[in-house]
């Protein structure tokens, strides 16, 4: 019976959780822009210029993948709303692209434990408050819906494979004594925290719950593989550019 249950859960993960959807009001974007302004202002005041540069690079990467590849070429990303499509995706790619990439670089630089805790708390609380504020203070409730079919083009399998390749690359670096096992765990923990922040904020605000196929299994898998599919490669490039 236990085996049958696990098989059923595995099939659910593969088939039922392929569609990931966000449904939110236009005011969500307004509050998110306020958070972005605070995030960028703090980076500038602390003179964290490397995270800012990587944040801009992350924005470009998200545009190339999320907008150009998934939306324009593959058609696996779907958007409906009153905002101009290009304007919407400019924000939609900038918000996670800049914040996630700049946060990761702050974590790579590891200036102090206090800094790591501060930026992680700000990261989680900031994004969570964006969703909650859009519920508590309804400025503009025009509905926007954006979704992605992760089953199209075997996206989930490809990203899962890339995450495993990153893990293999990390193990090779450990064997070559370029990093320690502790470093490897830290890197994958950082990658997991990055994506879980997004998933948690969408869950807390109810944005993910608007879709009928949402599950904790999907949330766990997304957090585990989405950013970790490139975390080691990003670390290698960061170290190379830093030297």
Could you write a compact summary of the structure shown?
By secondary structure, this protein is mainly α.
| N-to-C order of helices and strands | HEHHEHHEHHHH
Count of separate structural domains: 1
DSSP helix fraction? over 70%
- The SS-based structural class is mainly alpha
Number of helices: 9
Q: Overall 3D geometry?
A: globular
- Parts with pLDDT < 50 across at least 5 consecutive residues: 1-16
Descriptive account of the structure:
With 243 residues, the protein is mostly helical. It has one domain (24-242). The chain contains nine helices and three strands, in the order αβααβααβαααα. It has helices at 2-15, 26-45, 49-74, 85-109, 113-136, 155-175, 181-204, 216-225, 231-242, and strands spanning 19-25, 77-80, 143-149. The chain has a three-stranded antiparallel β-sheet. Helix 3 (49-74) packs across helix 4 (85-109).
């Amino acid at each position: 019976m236990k085996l049958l249950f696990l098989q059923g859960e595995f099939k659910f993960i593969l088939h039922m959780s392929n569609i990931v959807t966000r449904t939110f009001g236009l005011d969500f974007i307004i509050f998110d822009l306020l958070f972005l302004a605070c995030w960028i202002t703090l980076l500038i005041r602390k003179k964290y210029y490397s995270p800012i540069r990587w944040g801009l690079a992350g924005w470009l990467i998200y545009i190339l993948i999320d907008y150009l590849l998934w939306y324009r070429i593959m058609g696996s990303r779907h958007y409906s709303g009153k905002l101009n499509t290009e304007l919407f995706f400019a924000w939609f790619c900038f918000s996670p692209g800049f914040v996630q990439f700049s946060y990761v670089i702050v974590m790579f630089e590891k200036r102090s434990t206090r800094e790591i805790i501060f930026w992680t708390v700000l990261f989680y609380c900031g994004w969570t408050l964006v969703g909650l504020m859009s519920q508590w203070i309804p400025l503009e409730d025009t509905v926007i819906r954006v979704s992605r079919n992760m089953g199209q083009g075997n996206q989930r399998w490809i990203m899962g494979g890339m995450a495993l390749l990153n893990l293999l690359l990390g193990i090779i670096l450990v064997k070559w004594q370029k990093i320690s096992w502790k470093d490897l765990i830290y890197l994958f923990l950082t990658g997991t925290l990055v994506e879980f922040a997004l998933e948690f904020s969408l869950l807390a605000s109810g944005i993910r719950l608007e879709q009928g196929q949402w599950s904790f299994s999907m949330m766990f898998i997304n957090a585990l593989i989405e950013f970790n599919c490139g975390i080691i490669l990003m670390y290698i490039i960061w170290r190379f550019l830093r030297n």
